[in-house]
Amino acid sequence: MPLLHVQLVALIDQGCASACDATAMDIRDLHLGRLIGERTAGAVSGPSSPFFLDDGSAVIVPVTFMQGPAGEIVDGIGVPPDDEVHSTQADLAAGRDAVLEKALEAFSRTA
Questions:
Q1: Is residue 5 a contact partner of residue 30, using CB atoms and an 8 Å limit?
Q2: What is the mean pLDDT of residues 11-38?
Q3: What domains are defined for the chain?
Q4: What pTM value is reported for the model?
């Protein structure tokens, strides 16, 4: 079943790395939904290849940069949110999650 016209709000922060970076990049560039929170980690590289050494071991390194739909490189930079929101320790201790609240607000606006 195709998921066309489904509302999407994704929460991101510095813990969002690798495949999460790539997913956030695609959501942003392809206008699939809104990103709420903080910039992602920027820890995503392109495909890797093994290079075999004389002693039988191998070194696996990225051989290209992964680029987003708009041609940007995310590795080392991260993906910025559409709505930047930071939760403080005091908020969380009081049972308040500002990022989740903003995401629910954004979701209700698109409904």
A1: no
A2: 93
A3: 9-104 (3.90.226.10)
A4: 0.78
